[in-house]
Here is the input.
Amino acid sequence: MAAKFERKLKRIMALLLTAACLITSGIFLPQTAMKAAAAEQINGHSLIAENDNYALYMNEEYLSIIVQDKVTGAYMESAVSYDDGKNNATWSAAMRSALVLTMVYGTTDTQQADLVNDDVTKDITYSSDGFSAKVYWTKYQFGMTLEVKLTEDGVVASIPDESIVEDGKDYFIGTISVYPYMGHTYLDEKEGYMFIPDGNGALIYLNNKEGRFKSGFTGMIYGDDPGFSRVSTSNLLWQEYLIVNNSNKIMAPVFGMAHTDEGIAYLAVVEKGAERANIIANPNGVNVDYNRIYARFTQRVVYTQYTSNNSSSAYQTAETNRSHSDLQVHWIFLRDEKANYSGMANAYRNYLLERGDLTPSADTSYNTRVDFLGSDRESWVVGTSAVVMTTVDDIRDIYADLKDAGLTDLFTVFKGWQKGGRYNLPISSYKADSKIGGTGDLTSLIKDAEADGIEFYLYNDALRLNPVETNSVFNVVKQVNKRRYSEATYKEVYEELLYMIPSRTNTLLNKFVKSYTKKGVDNLALAGVSNTLFSHYYDSVYYSRSQTAQEYDAIVDQVAQQTDLVLEQPFAYLWKYTDAFLDMPLYTSNYMYEDESVPFMSIVLKGVMPVYSEYVNFEANKQEFFMKMVETGTYPSFYITKESSSALVNTNSSDVYSSQYEVYRSTIIDYAQQLADINQKVQGAYISGHEIRDNGITVVTYDNGVKIYLNYGSAEAQADGYTIEGMSIKVVDE
Amino acid sequence: MKKVSKKLLLSLAVILLAAALWTPLEAYADAPYKTYTVDGYGYVTETQTAYLPYLTITKVGEEALNGPTDFTLLDDGTMYILDSGNKRVVVSDLEGNLIDVFGEGTLVNPKGIYVTSEHICYVADRDAKSIFVFDENRQLIQTYGKPEHALYGSTQDFLPIKIVVNESGTMYVICESNTNGIVQISPVEGGTFLGYFGTNSTNTNLWNIVWRALQTEAQRARSQSNLPSTPTNLSIDEKGLIYTVTAGEKFETLKRLNIAGINMIEPERYDRTPAAVAPGNHDNVFVASTQGYIYEYNNEGDLLFVFGGADDGQQRIGLSTRVEAIQIGNDDKIYVLDSEKAQIQVYEPTEFTSLLHEALFLFSKGRYTASKEPLSKVLEMNNLFAYANMAMGMALVQEENYDDALYYSKLSKDFDGYSDAFWEIRNEWLKDYLVPAVLIIVAILIIKKVLQVLDKKKGILAGPRKALEKFKNRKLVRELNYMFYFMRHPIDGCYGIKREGRVSLLSANILLVLGIVFFIINKYFCGFLLKTVREGSYDIVSDIGLLVIALVLVTGCNYLICTINEGEGKLKHIYCSFIYSFAPYLVITPLIFLLSHVVTYNEVFFVEFATIFMYVWILVLIFISIMEINSYNVKDTVKIIGLTLFTILIAVLLAFIIYVLWSQVFEFIQAIFGEVVYRIGS
Here is the structure.
């Protein structure tokens, strides 16, 4: 019986197994069938993977890809399929190749390596969702593995760090661009734009530029590297004064391309290796007539090594070791009504929220940010003397005065509170300057403010060190050429500031936080480390920007656990730690090729956390700035002192040329009343749409249905049946 | 249906001065450059953005420009752009819409253009060596060639590059490589040469004069001739005043010339490479430099703003590559022509600048009180704006609010304003306190007299007097006191130093320290009107350093020279006598210091006189000291002083050479070391 049963069981098992095999193969069958049927080609690319949303096509020769939206049929190509015949071999190759490299050869770093013109061995393995290609340049003796995967939302291309090999002695990898022509267009063949993360966000239209631009946008993600930068004096007024503003730092590793007429767009996120990558956007006319935008990863650069202190003798040399980090770009595709910049911003917000790289703040309600400057120093007979601008008692008075005017929704960052004034850096312990009232008074002010519902933060620049006030031989950042990095202030009392290495920042910050929280207060506004990233030498060891980023991440993480933390203009990888965003730029850097300024960053962050503007004080066109704050959902910031700012003329804060409370009192109250009203209606809501109509009316749509119409023009204009007067705002609740 | 509740319908129109000027889309709200202003101390401070990039005209209609070099903007909003690369004139409106094109076939290499309000167009054509005149129908009506006039110079070529024309039709022409000045041509009889105008002065200095005097005739002929520079560009205002800018000079690069050719403006800050100049609508002047800096001056030549800058390839709106011309619109917009970018960049004034212009206008009309309102708004936006502070101070003086006026004129370093206000305040003070002060002085005198009488009778001051005597008789006190004797009797004084040991090194050193302290106090804390350094700036280390080095050099060199010239003086004696020669400084400086706090410009003469008197006294003492300490006669002394000065010169030169050599050697070693380390290290 038992044996019979056993046999039966075996038979059943066998049957089941066969069935299972059949089912399994059945699952794969359609796919193989499709692959076989993959006569389905687009412009020499064959279908290799697909899911519910997208299909991935690939050309084996150059590894170029095409991503097609299965719903709309629209697609974007990584290789140029229409050649206008005006381009030389090098450019033609760059337009087709999946990977475009520049090489370091001796001290030159411009020669190109690609998959078209060079002898390359390729080893391609396919998987269900894409392919992996091991490529090797036989002449130059280096290679890497390119992995491309189709995801539910788009496509990911990556190059693992360990796959990059350099065997040669002459040629080394300088930079790597992955799919540099992804989503390109030719002249004005398609309508749309490229999105670049300059300032709050900017668009370059895909129209015919008629050769007006010799170069396009090149910006290093997270700002230029102080570890490599050289101080240029060419752009100083009278050889002395910095007159050209630095362009905005790129705060988030994103860029985008939208073909609005075809209803397809992508937002590209540089997921790995962003710390040493550039975003490059070239409109047509820059070398070739194609519009293209991409990320270029830097592995190695040629730099100037000085051999004397006064820079008179120097030689050019390349970095010995390449930077190490995985490289990865994720193109998130968007369709139809989402295929535009507000769609990109929404996609980026969702992306960050899903990955936990952004955590919604508990409280996003309206506050007026009123920052105070405690004291600074001016030169005196011997050393320096204090210039006291706002004491703790002054702040109490101002709070009381504002309260009388009905204003209690306040947010304050207190600068220059520490012993020795604003530029006595670093701050290593919680010691307030006795001239502004001392530590005891400050502590009680913070507690009283908290009891009154005012958020009061102490400002701490944890990056900079003042060499006049602090011993600076050790623990300061040295550039890759082993010279000490110095940040010129172009001011008189302290002419330069130095950067501390991350471990020093960590030690001092920990010390400070400990002595601070011991007093029962824990609101901290952190600056410097929040928006600076550098590679550096310390103890003859090279630390890359990725390492610095990791260290800062850990430091800020730790501080965020111990304090209520807000960050000044933080980079994207720190957004998850901050309760508010300070100093959001509302404009761009004014590049000529930028056609439109759009509030990308504001759309991403509005409703997720409170976002505060840069100081209203220094805006020349106050009314326009006010409207811009409404458009972006930004809360106003004021930099306030009790004393007249003329007292600051001989200090390092001489650029604070207008800050007296008396002067700004009415503006603060006025702005608070107007903005609180508007922001009440969009409390906790996200911006779901943003558009600029043809008649110049800007329409901002929130996901709770509120619409804000803004007319920056002087004449009244119509939109959706409403009349909006010149220079005015209309808020509509549906 | 959308429901629009009244409450939710927010309309936030705010009336603003500049609002009416704004048009959508083209305006950029953020500038890529900073704006600076210069305060009364010559210090440069940042200020609100004065002008924002507003519009960039890269094409006129469909016509692209090619290396445009000049343009004229008329009050009716017509722009005549000299499209030099295309050898034509392009007429445009303010937005860059094409109106007309002309001049093709006539123009060869045009460089300058001027158009009158009647649309008569003058073109300076360098290679055609002519000035072409077109009427309002674009017809060529006149051509002026090289003036036939003896004064013009027969060998002088005629290469016109810039031109303006006044109301009577007289042309002012800048010609390339003509250093005689601006060529003035009257339209009568087909062009009559009227003479040269506004010739630049040659730039010479003492060194050049000495050098040229030493050269032979042949050498002088070979050396670069010292000719005045040709102006770079010019402009004319409604009153017919001519403005010129000249590149390559250090000073007077901007001039405002009256009918007689006299310069009436002397700014403190010039640009070294100005490209163009244009008068504004508020008695102000604009200068654009080739690199793209734009300067706005008021009619006194005070720099109100400087902004803009060179585009280093970043291609940011508002930065320039090569500026050729500047024009100001009716609405105060600035139009800047960039030949390399082949575009016209338009800047619009911000709220801040509009307020300032309003104040400027009211102020220039003498309506001080009315100007206070815009001025106070300007100062709210920038407490440190020197011009506004100065104007505010003057307005307040008018209103007899002297205390506040004092504050503002001090902020802007307006000495005249400060002096006026201070005079009034002092006057008030004198009125209030003169009688009590006299009474107090009389009372003190009486008390003194009474004390003296009492002392004589009863000797009540015997105790203190004895103590004082005792104190005075202490050695160090006696030595210090010797100073007063020395300054009155230098010859005996020197004998005392040399033979009687009346002073010691200690006492001399104490006096030296005192002197330095007095110097520093006087330099940094004297009255505002006499202060030479900026309030709040201190440089004590170099002050002390300089004084000590000077003393060491003078004493040392003098000693060296004296020893080889049979001088009897020992180093100690020379040193002490020098220090004691400065006794008048120690006595008079405190007086000057006190005086400086109460004088106005009306009495500043007293201070100046006291200062000169003091220095003459010191020099006499030094002279006598050298003579007496070394037992020289007058002739020997003069010789010794000359030799000492020469030795000092040599010593300084030597120190400089050694410094240079050593720094070279040091740098060389460092470079080798550095390179070795880096090469091995890598």
Q: What stands out?
A: The mean pLDDT of chain B is 86.
